[in-house]
Amino acid sequence: HPGTGAASSTKHFQLNHWQNPIPFPELFDGDMDKLPEFILQTGSYVYVDEKTFRTDKLKVLFLITRLKGRALQWAMPYIKTDSSLLYDYSCFLNEMKEEFGLGGG
Fold first, then answer.
1. Total domains in the fold of the chain
2. Looking at 17-31, 52-66, 68-82, which range is the least confident one?
3. Which of 26, 32, 67, 73 has a CB 3.0–4.6 Å from the CB of 101, allowing a cystine?
4. Domain range for residue 58?
């Protein structure tokens, strides 16, 4: 019968069936004009997917995967030293804002 194998072949796809409705964040290269949008994009992306991004470290590491150029160079020392900032999402964002032009002073 033609329809017998269909149910078993689709079964294992249901695990990853949920798709994040937020567009995948663009790469950020350190351009301060694009920082607010980048923070909004990455923040929204991790916020709606609490299962994947359960900890601050997972959020920070995801954010780092969306960096390139000068922004990625800036983040590398934090990774190499396993900085405490990697475990604190809001502090990491504050450091980014300081570095790339959205700081208070």
1. 1
2. 17-31
3. 32
4. 28-99
